[in-house]
Design a protein that fits this description.
With 223 residues, the chain is of the alpha/beta class. Helices cover 41% and strands 13% of the residues. The structure holds NADP nicotinamide-adenine-dinucleotide phosphate (NAP).
């Protein structure tokens, strides 16, 4: 990734401020000094001066206060712009917000898709009310939603693909951004175009029938 980004920047194909680079620290590295060292290693590999958003990958044994202290140091040093977490459920977010500086968390990256809607029960409202962005990973459910019959039928009505319907639904959720992975250029282009697709009320009803929203608390899905 570092070589590709460096090549594109050097060639003038894009500017650094047009990119939003996200990286994560593994929980076993997330001590005060370990977080800073891990970030420096990532910056070196990425050939970058700063990371836009740096996340704690999931809860681990190091105290959250130590990780946050390192995140704030990295921010002061200009090595990261924002910090956040990943795979944190509501109770983890509550705990994080009780740590000094915890309210500065910018994002929680979680498994969230039409077929994994558990986060809607209380996590997404919690994040929304505190202006913490929810970053949906696996928004196409690792490719499965691209083959789904309901999404295909809705897509046919709009002359778009099933994957684009899945992404348009996701982007219609307030406070949520989606990070679909696509190695194929055609998929990348399709996914970008999904941002312009507006589903109607009938589409949403059909999706809610097929992929029911949670009625009770469910454990956060993880991949
Ligand atoms: N924070 C965490 O703990 C965590 C855990 C897992 C994943 N993630 C992140 O989440 C992101 C996505 O995860 P994911 O790859 O597991 O799931 P995903 O984005 O839901 O699905 C990716 C799969 O869908 C295919 N696809 C993408 N666009 C498509 C389209 N328009 N039409 C048909 N198929 C399409 C891709 O194919 P091609 O690649 O062949 O184009 C790939 O097989 C990754 O960037 C990953 O880093 C984070």
């Amino acid at each position: 990734v570092g070589a590709a980004v460096a090549g594109a920047l050097r060639a003038g194909d894009l500017r650094r401020d047009e990119l939003f680079i996200v990286s994560k620290v593994y929980p076993h590295n997330a001590s005060r000094s370990g977080t800073i060292a891990a970030c420096e290693r990532s910056l070196k590999r990425l050939k970058l001066e700063h990371i836009d958003l740096y996340l704690l990958h999931w809860r681990g044994a190091h105290p959250l206060a130590d990780t946050l202290d390192a995140f704030e140091t990295l921010k002061r040093q200009g090595r990261i712009r924002h910090w956040g977490v990943s795979n944190f459920d509501t109770d983890d977010m509550e705990e994080l917000s009780s740590v000094a500086g915890g309210a500065r968390c910018a994002a929680d990256q979680v498994y969230y898709s039409l077929s994994q809607r558990g986060a809607e029960f209380d996590l997404l409202p919690w994040l929304r009310s505190r202006s913490v962005a929810a970053m949906a990973y696996c928004p196409i459910d690792q490719g499965a939603l691209a083959r789904d019959a309901t999404l295909r039928a809705i897509g046919e009505r709009h002359r778009v693909s099933a994957a684009q319907v899945a992404l348009a639904w996701m982007l219609a959720q307030p406070g949520v951004v989606a990070i679909p992975k696509a190695a194929r250029e055609a998929h990348l282009r399709e996914n970008l175009e999904a941002a312009a697709l507006a589903l109607n009320a009938a589409d949403h009803l059909e999706l809610d029938r097929q992929f029911a929203p949670p009625r009770r608390k469910e454990p956060l899905a993880m991949s």
